[in-house]
């Protein structure tokens, strides 16, 4: 069973602490699989293998910085970006981190398709792309096959904040958002509703195949 919790706009530290608490409880089988949906205040987060040089000297002073335990390099979170933190036990699906990452990408690809945006994967890189611009970033941590951290989809994101970093340590490609591609503000609740639908489609299908 998948439970979804919409936290609205929530401070990064508070949500990070909640993730760790929920992951610990999921490992002990005290709760069901849970997906947190949230928007954050502007923050830059460094993954455990991130290069500090990918934070540029001209980054905005009002953006807080966090060093966290997920994989991946530096990324940005902020208002207008839909962030998802699945706390799920992969024993119920497939014991494969690569399968899990590709499944998260598929959820986002299908969500974007619903809004008329054709997106894709890029060989050798994580995330979801529209041509040569990244629209969704992924970074996860897995402990005893229970996941935390997750994905960030640019919906109405202020893309200027990406000028202060080398996103995900990738020099040669840019970033985009649903708003930029469609030329209008996107209704966030509609994106959340569709993403929840696609998450059930992708992950429940896997359960059916395993059974």
CATH class: Alpha Beta
CATH topology: BirA Bifunctional Protein, domain 2
What general form does the structure show? globular
| Main β sheet profile | 8 strands, mixed
Distance between the termini: 14 Å
Number of strands: 11
Query: Counting H and I runs of at least 4 residues, what is the number of helices?
Result: 4
How many structurally independent domains? 1
Q: What is the overall pLDDT average?
A: 93
Cα-atom Rg, whole angstroms? 16 Å
Q: How big a fraction of the residues is strand? A: 25-35%
Quick recap:
This protein has helices at residues 12-27, 97-114, 178-182, 188-210; strands spanning 2-9, 33-39, 43-46, 64-67, 74-77, 81-87, 120-122, 125-130, 133-143, 146-154, 174-175. It has 211 residues and is α/β, with parallel strands linked by helices. The protein has a single domain (2-210), classed as BirA Bifunctional Protein, domain 2.
Architecture blueprint of SSEs:
Elements lengths: L1 E8 L2 H16 L5 E7 L3 E4 L17 E4 L6 E4 L3 E7 L9 H18 L5 E3 L2 E6 L2 E11 L2 E9 L19 E2 L2 H5 L5 H23 L1
Parallel strand pairs: 1-2, 3-4, 9-11
Antiparallel strand pairs: 2-6, 3-5, 6-10, 7-8, 8-9, 9-10
Helix pairs in contact: 2-4
Give a description of the structure:
By secondary structure, the chain is α/β, with parallel strands linked by helices. It has a single domain, classed as 2-Layer Sandwich (BirA Bifunctional Protein, domain 2), CATH 3.30.930. The protein is built from 4 helices and 11 strands. The strands form 2 sheets. Strands 1, 2, 6, 7, 8, 9, 10 and 11 form an 8-stranded mixed sheet that branches. A hairpin with a 2-residue loop joins strand 7 and strand 8. Helix 2 crosses helix 4. It is globular. The mean pLDDT is 93.
